[in-house]
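explain this chain.
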Amino acid sequence: MKRTYALTQAIVLAATLVIAPCIARAHGSADHAKSGSAAISTDEHAFGVEGNPKKASRTVAISMDDSMRYSQSEIRVKQGETLTFVIRNKGKLLHELVIGTESELQQHAELMRKNPDMEHDEPYMAHVKPGTTERMTWRFSKSGTFLYGCLVPGHFEAGMKGRIIVATNK
């Protein structure tokens, strides 16, 4: 009896050690969080470049929940300004805040509908699990009107988006 119990425990432990890493890889990182030691990207986008948190001129708090809305629907920024977004998910579902042009967000939303489990970790994306908060710093180096939205399938289409208006410095 003791031998059967010990054998069963050994099999369960071995199976756990084999299966757990596979489950973790299938979902990507546990919380899609960015690595704290990652270098700041210098990749320019139509809507700016990743910002250095130490050089942020202000912090913008945004909350979101399962009503498919952000606490702010419009943010005004001066060209060249660096903002740190503190994004809080008050809902029970995963939500995100992704910055981009309207066409980029629409294309990405379509891609997410086709591949809901796709992994991505760009500096202009914050994936926020229920009840947690993420930070994202962005420098708006170009003027124009840009969007932010939640690209979890169905959320963007339900109206989970907002505008960022970047005014030209004169």
Observations:
- The CA atoms of residues 21 and 27 lie 10 Å apart.
